[in-house]
Amino acid sequence: xxxxxxxxxxxxxxxxxxxxxxxxxFRALPNILLVVLAVVFPFIIQKKHLRKLTSRSSILWLCxxxxxxxxxxxxxxxxxxxxxxxxxxxxxxxxxxxxxIENFKKLYKAIIFSSIxxxxxxxxxxxxxxxxxxxxxxxESATIVEAILVDRIYLGFLSVISILASYQLLRKxxxxxxxxxxxNITLNVLFIxxxxxxxxxxxxxxxxxxxxxxxxxxxxxxxxxxxxIFLIAVLVFVVNQDLRKKIFYAQDAQKNQGLIANTMAYExxxxxxxxxxxxxxxxxxxxxxxxxxxxxxxxxxxxxxxxANPVKSKWFLKQKYNVHNQFLDTYLGGGIxxxxxxxxxxxxxxxxxxxxFFPTALLLSLFCFAMVENVFHRQIGAYYVxxxxxxxxxxxxxxxxxxxxxxxxx
Length: 410
Prior knowledge:
Helix content: over 70%
Number of helices: 21
Structural class: mainly alpha
């Protein structure tokens, strides 16, 4: 029986990651798969598997979550913040649930197929809407935006991870499968540009620059990087009117005020982060924080009292924008000690994986998206954070994946 369960278990895990983007349509399925994994886990886990979590980084992440629970209990916010705490616990649970599985290549392929399925689903739905007479424009048509499978920031996050997974599976020598991974990289890059996911575009550029530090031929690659970035930027700006509008905010009422003024006027995060900093300044150094729900309430108070334009204030209150920065949210919600443990945990992961491109690029991706999004406030965010954590915490300890973990650019 144990052998049978051990053979089925990896496929359940892979199916879980494949179905994550479709949570809106199959909401119960990921939860069912998680329950199956949790039930089977005790029957197949072995002592040797647990040794994968003996690294310093693993202990630090457990300490981070433990400190967060303690801070929440002391401040009396643990019950009202339970929904978010469950998502953080989910990311760490995925690491534990993956311990009995040895092969990372299949997990990378699950991410790749998941991104392809999400892209195809989104494009087909967009095509159907366009046939119904809707005008294409991500910045002007809420219907078109809603046609995308999930929020653009998470589709962009998935595409970035899929690109890195494809790169990691590429072989230095010729192999027929390389063309499929290259095709997936091309597809996801084009899709990121198509949906105008700014943070995904910026993350890809930073990853490309990061790759120069892992290359033996930096001179030629630096020239290629500068030229490639320039050509892509020119092409995207010429072809994609949405991106020009989104970056320069060339609205009629503000077109003569310049880039900085327009950005401040039309980028919601400038208002959101301003309110977040007001909360940081107002609370001072907090040991236990005000809780995540309490933080969101403070943000609502700021929108109501500090936005002079009543229409704009009403819009922010209606949208109930959170901090949109996981680091600020962790400090405000959990306090200074929890925040420091989070930063130390990320720093430890970087220190342990800094010699290899793939894990460092994954960590950079997590950092970039966490800078503009509360990744633990959405279940899909918790899943992808869990993927990155299990890859960084477990992969380097798997003797069967030595060829996968190298990660240097040829």
